[in-house]
Amino acid sequence: MENQRICGKKGYVVMKILVTGAAGFIGSHVVARLLQEGHEVTGVDSFDIYYSRGQKEKNLMPVLLHPQFKLVEDNLAEMALVKVIKGTEAIVHLAAQPGARGSWGSSFHRYVTHNIQVTQKLLEESKANKLKRFVYASSSSVYGDIAQREGQDIAILNEEMMCKPRSPYGVTKLAAENLARLYHQEYRMPTVSLRFFSVYGPGQRPDMAFNRFCHNLLHDAAHTIYGDGKQVRDFTYVDDVVAVIAAAVTSEAAVGEVVNVGGGSPCTLLEAVALLEEISGKTCPKTFLERQKGDVFSTRADTAKLERIFGAKPKTPLREGLQRQWDWMRKFVQAEDEEQAIKAQAQPITEVDEAALAEAKADEKATKKAARKAEKATKAAKIKTATSENQDQI
Ligand SMILES: NC(=O)c1ccc[n+]([C@@H]2O[C@H](COP(=O)([O-])OP(=O)(O)OC[C@H]3O[C@@H](n4cnc5c(N)ncnc54)[C@H](O)[C@@H]3O)[C@@H](O)[C@H]2O)c1
Predict the structure, then answer these.
(1) Given a cut of 60, is residue 392 above it in pLDDT?
(2) Rounded mean pLDDT of the chain?
(3) Which of 152, 202, 229, 254 has the CB geometry, 3.0–4.6 Å to 192, for a possible disulfide?
(4) What is the 20 CA–ligand 1 centroid distance (Å)?
């Protein structure tokens, strides 16, 4: 392809890549990594209101002025995709409405639009573009509670298992994954679906557990834990996820596959909280609430396929990754608190200085009067000139 260049250092092909959801937690790390590898990146993000625009702007700060990066702020559900797809060689599709707990009830239409319809729109629009890769961000939530159904304590989830999601969010992620599979089968689209397991690290979404726990520790607030805290998660550090995404963009072996991207650091929520308390040197009281609808008991990835295709698996130990997230959170929350304090200190002007207002109004009146007088004088002078010119012509 004429746009391709071989990157001298590592020998891989450099491409024009579209990253959807570029301002989000994982998306912003992906953009940084792809730019580092020499690719040309266009990022699309709608800066959805699910969480603060401020956090997303901060996520993108390190890459915003990069000469190989272009940001398009738009909603993929509404925009004309040709604007961002033309000339694109690979798509990393991360834009979505995340969060399993919020996917019940009246919010469901958001999940259908952002997760299913947008994916279908992107796949359909990409058909004619001879893409080299379409990397779809799937989720461990497609599996559901296989562990409980099969009567095991902790099931190791592998890609061959039948998926029975436990939340509407999981249903939409599985539907989009199936769409990617269909477009691969019927149109030879080079799709790869990566099932991420509980991603954490700097920039993590504010609704996710580790972000909330760090917040509580920094503000001496109580931790809210849904269920007994013994639910197991296979926590995966964001850089490890990003490394697999970057490899999937160029790897031939990944095409048409569904692959788990799990951390190899499974532990219970209570163990993770204890580790965070050790790192921060602080503790918080815990409030236990009823298990939430859609929360699964255990997620643990079988990484055999990941290792077979990519030759590596996530390697960041939980303690190291949590330390990095804690360091980031401390700075982020401090900056956030300072912004709040400045806003609170700013004195809003609520009283009107009546004398100054009267003076300003009088000035305005005088100015208008003078302008009218000048206009009248100009008009009179014009009439006088015109009359004398007409008289001359006669
Ligand atoms: N974070 C995790 O642990 C995790 C686990 C499994 C799967 N995933 C998947 O990974 C992807 C990224 O997750 P994240 O945690 O970074 O979420 P995020 O909310 O931080 O990022 C998603 C971004 O997409 C944008 N977006 C949403 N709808 C859009 C639209 N219609 N048009 C343009 N932009 C849109 C949002 O503004 C947001 O910036 C999602 O697809 C999610 O389902 C995440």
Answers:
(1) no
(2) 89
(3) 254
(4) 8
CA of 45 to the centre of ligand 1 (A): 10
CA separation, residue 393 to residues 297, 312, 379, 386, 389 (Å): 101, 97, 21, 11, 6
Exposed, middle or buried: residue 213 (CB in 10 Å: 0-12, 13-18, 19+)?
A: buried
**pLDDT tens profile 185-195:** 999 999 999 99
Instruction: Report all structural domains of the chain as residue ranges with CATH numbers, in order of start.
Output: 5-202+236-263+296-316 (3.40.50.720)
Model confidence pLDDT, tens digit, residues 144-160: 877 555 455 557 899 99
Q: Can you give the pTM of this predicted structure?
A: 0.86
Please list the active-site residues: 169
Q: Which of 19, 31, 45, 50 to mutate to test the pocket of ligand 1 (most atoms within 8 A of CB)?
A: 45
Write the DSSP string, 324-373.
HHHHHHHHHHHHHHHHHHHHHHS-------HHHHHHHHHHHHHHHHHHHH
